[in-house]
Design a protein that fits this description.
The chain is built from nine helices and ten strands. The protein is an alpha/beta fold. It starts with 13 loop residues before the first strand and ends with a helix. The chain binds adenosine-5'-diphosphate (ADP) and magnesium ion. Adenosine-5'-diphosphate binds next to strand 2 and helix 1. This is General L-amino acid transport system ATP-binding protein.
């Protein structure tokens, strides 16, 4: 009797596949043989010393940086120089930066509707309704008419998160989203991120907020000198770090 093929449902639903990815800034070898597969719905936290390549790695995922060797495939689309592919991938990948990167001369509502209206060609009224929905989700609908400079850092970062969500991404990348915030504002941003994580969006977050990692991550990755040194589920990662570099890093931040 012929062997029955394995049912498709048991195959992992890989949304991001980085294989043998290398990148240089001039002579400087910043990413070394990165192999990373992220399945749909995963919450991955990346940590590691400053300068280890964390930002570069996630910026390669939406082509804010270009890799020189290896392959990056996002939802079955390979990231090449083909602008069509780059556009297609950028539609699926939202990014939240440390410095918020809001447009200072636009109101909060205009910040949220700009790309949906001009890039996605969504009617203004519909874009505004979506924007108000996500502003409510990040708990600041009353700030819609203000300018970024009139908001606290924590509020600005929540606007930045809402702005990403308005593009309905499949994957959200966060690059140290709370590092520029005063301590009393960190929790309001992390609480929003925890809620999002629970809804099932695929998330990769560079952060040193290890409480966040324990709460939402299913996997913690430690990077050093351009390499993924080790990765594990949070409990094991924190309890039993394997490499000396990870142990040293954790002893410095915990
Ligand atoms: P991390 O986010 O882990 O702090 P980065 O990815 O920002 O690390 O940077 C990794 C290394 O690459 C650092 O040594 C940094 O100085 C260097 N680097 C980052 N961006 C550039 C660039 N545009 N040109 C040259 N070197 C860069
Ligand atoms: Mg960085």
């Amino acid at each position: 009797m012929a062997a029955t093929p394995a049912p498709a449902a048991t195959e992992p639903d890989v949304l991001i596949q980085m294989s043998g990815v290398n990148k240089w800034y001039g002579e400087f070898h910043v990413l070394r043989d990165i192999n990373l597969a992220v399945e749909r719905g995963e919450k991955v936290v990346i940590c590691g010393p400053s300068g280890s390549g964390k930002s570069t790695l996630i910026r390669c995922l939406n082509r804010l940086e270009e890799h020189q060797k290896g392959s990056i495939i996002v939802d079955k689309i390979e990231l090449t120089n083909d602008v069509k592919n780059i556009d297609a991938i950028r539609r699926e990948v939202g990014m939240v930066f440390q410095q918020f990167n809001l447009f200072p001369h636009l109101t909060v509502l205009e910040n949220l509707t700009l790309a949906p209206i001009w890039v996605r060609k969504i009617p203004k009224k519909e874009a505004e309704e979506t924007a108000m929905y996500f502003l409510s989700r990040v708990k600041i609908p009353e700030q819609a008419g203000k300018y970024p400079g009139q908001l606290s850092g924590g509020q600005q970062q929540r606007v930045a998160i809402a702005r990403s969500l308005c593009m309905k991404p499949k994957i959200l990348l966060f690059d140290e989203p709370t590092s520029a915030l005063d301590p009393e504002m960190i929790k309001e941003v992390l609480d929003v991120m925890i809620e999002l994580a629970r809804e099932g969006i695929t998330m990769i977050c560079v952060t040193h907020e290890m409480g966040f990692a324990r709460t939402v991550a299913n996997r913690v990755i430690f990077m050093d000198r351009g390499q993924i040194v080790e990765q594990n589920e949070p409990e094991e990662f924190f309890k039993n770090p394997k490499s000396d570099r990870t142990k040293l890093f954790l002893s410095q931040i915990l």
